[in-house]
Amino acid sequence: MTSDDSAPDGGTADEVSSGEADGGVALDPWGSATVGDYRNLFEEFGIEEFDEIIDRVPDPHYLMRRGVIFGHRGYDAVADAMREGEDVAALSGFMPTGDPHIGHKLVFDELIWHQEHGADTYGLIADLEAHSARGMTWAEIDEHARDYLLSLLALGFDAEEGTLYRQSTNRELQDLAFELGAKARFAEFEGIYGFGGGTSVSHMQSVVTQMADILYPQLVDEPKPTVIPVGPDQDPHVRFSRDIAARMRYFKVTDAFASFELDDDERRVVAVAYDDREEYAADADTPRCEEAAEYIRGDPGGLDAAADVIDSTIEKLENAGMEPLRPRVRFFDRNATDEAFEALIEAVDGEKRVFEAHVDAFDLDRTAAEELAREIEVDHDGFGFVAPSSIYHRFMTGLTGGKMSSSVPASHISLLDDPEDGYDKVMAATTGGRDTAEEQRELGGRADECPVYELYAYLLAGDDDDFAELVYDECVGGERLCGDCKEQAAGLMREFLAEHQEKREEAEEVLADLDIDLDVDASRRGIAPTAEE
Fold first, then answer.
1. What number of other Cβ atoms are within 10 A of residue 267's Cβ?
2. What's the CA gap between 16 and 45, in Å, rounded?
3. In sequence order, what are the beta bridge partners of 165?
4. In whole angstroms, what is the distance from residue 410 CA to residue 121 CA?
5. Fewest C-beta in 10 Å: which of 211, 265, 397, 405?
6. Distance between first and last Cα of the chain
């Protein structure tokens, strides 16, 4: 959920591990490889394609339009809320282990765009993570934290409308992390992050703190759709936070068809059988469980489930015998107080059945049931968290052709670089051009493999899609040669850095007026821990 010099969710490729042993991709927030094929993320981790929902996004950012933002988890809820003028939030964090650079600018821009579209927006300095996972001293963290905040403000973050904070000085956040930690188990840290006996307790605590960061906007105000803009390396944090958010809820709301419980896969099978009830039920108004079991056993088609799911579903239906199949919404008691459970029973209108640990409602749809459950929870001092959403952007290629890495100065451009140095780095960059000008004119350039073209698409073309498209078309059409293209890009980069640094100077006064501690080192003395391998 955070970005740093070696692992920025802001766009370098340092933090994604490629799990080639099993032919897949392993996402590791502290790893050191690249994602070779973003399509694998859809199949292996359930990340959804952003193109499928972009039409629901009001005034999409150019990173969305150009496919730089390529995936999401649950962002449709955020997009719909923005379009309807409802409350939403956006949050991302930055691990201050070095200078902010052009990769981080992706996340800065995404936060600012959401703020401009009405979101309650949060930017945080992940200093606890930097100290525990990267071994940074507090003095180093203080210096870099200041630089991140200045660049975020210089790019347009409105500090009066948004919220900026440091993990280490936010007591409310730390209290939330403690509560969330009660729902996390060490086995999950092993399975998700590969933590083991050599992992420091502080590193594990920093992960729980990130879970609290992700949910913090809903603690400050009220439950609402919240988006976390990140690189795909941070997806484990997003998935974990969605699980933890669900475990904190007082009630779990599901669809049900009878008195017994079904898992999600079994429920889909029974839903198909219920929809087809006229084909097998003696009385279509009252289909029986054993009738549905016999129908499913006959393999009617459209079930789309594994054999073991079919077998377990049939067994449960047969055990229920002549009990009617009847759709209802079920409220499970997860963590509710006695008072909250009684309040829920009282609040459910229409026909209902009350059991020791759940309530079945026959006259509520799923959406209304979810709203009721959250309302009761919040009224009885629960959190009522909405599952956090995320959007994922592609990593920027290093200017030298490999990974963009802080350990290779020529591969990246710091937002603090002298404008002339930025110009020189672009001029020295690798391109996707051919070996000779003649080949370039004949075959066209390889813009899709060109770090310089990425600079246009990700930054230098700004909101001008026509300009970005022109550069691309001229390149692949053989009209644009690499020398001229780099000269133009280098000039634009010099202009950008000069303007950005002027705005950083203007942001000094804004930062000085903010209620954020930039000298944590004064109160936190000690030897920096050794970061785990």
1. 15
2. 13
3. 124
4. 33
5. 265
6. 20
Do 277 and 284 touch, CB atoms closer than 8 A?
A: yes
Distances (CA, A) of 139 to 130, 135, 145, 146, 521: 12, 12, 10, 11, 5
Strands 2-3 and 89-94, by their bridges, are parallel
Contact predicate 229/68, CB 8 Å: no
Long-range contacts from 173-181, C-beta under 8 angstroms, 24+ separation: 173/209, 173/212, 173/213, 173/216, 174/209, 174/212, 176/212, 176/215, 176/216, 176/219, 177/205, 177/208, 177/209, 177/211, 177/212, 179/248, 180/208, 180/211, 180/212, 180/215, 180/244, 180/248, 181/205, 181/208
How many residues are listed for the chain in this entry? Answer: 533
Q: Within 10 Å of residue 104's Cβ, how many Cβ atoms? A: 28
- The answer to whether the beta carbons of residues 465 and 62 sit under 8 Å apart is yes
Tokens at 162, concatenated:
């948004």
Domains of the chain: 2-248+386-393 (3.40.50.620), 252-379 (no CATH), 409-513 (1.10.240.10)
pLDDT tens figures, 166-199 = 999 999 999 999 999 999 999 999 998 889 989 8
List, in order, residues 6 or more apart from 256 with CB less than 8 Å away. 262, 267, 327, 328, 329, 330, 360
**Alpha-carbon 329 to chain mean position:** 29
Tokens linked to 473: 């078309």
Q: State the pTM of this model.
A: 0.88
Four-CA torsion 5, 7, 12, 14, nearest 10 degrees: 120
Sequence-ordered list of residues with C-beta below 8 angstroms from that of 371, at least 6 positions apart, any chain:
none
Q: Is 17 helix (H, G, I), strand (E, B) or coil?
A: strand
**Rounded to an integer, what distance in angstroms lies between the CA atom of residue 485 and that of residue 509?**
38
pLDDT digits (tens, 9 = 90+) for 228-284: 999 888 899 999 999 999 999 999 999 999 999 999 999 999 999 999 999 999 999
- For tokens 């002298």, what's the residue? 418
CA 313/CA 430 separation, integer angstroms: 58
Query: Which is nearest to 173 in space by CA: 296, 91, 260?
Result: 91
Strand partners, 283: none
The encoded tokens of residue 366 equal 């799923």
What is the secondary structure of 213-274 as a DSSP string? HHHHHHHHS----EEEEE-GGGHHHHHHHHHHHHHH-SEEEEEESSSS---HHHHHHHHHHH
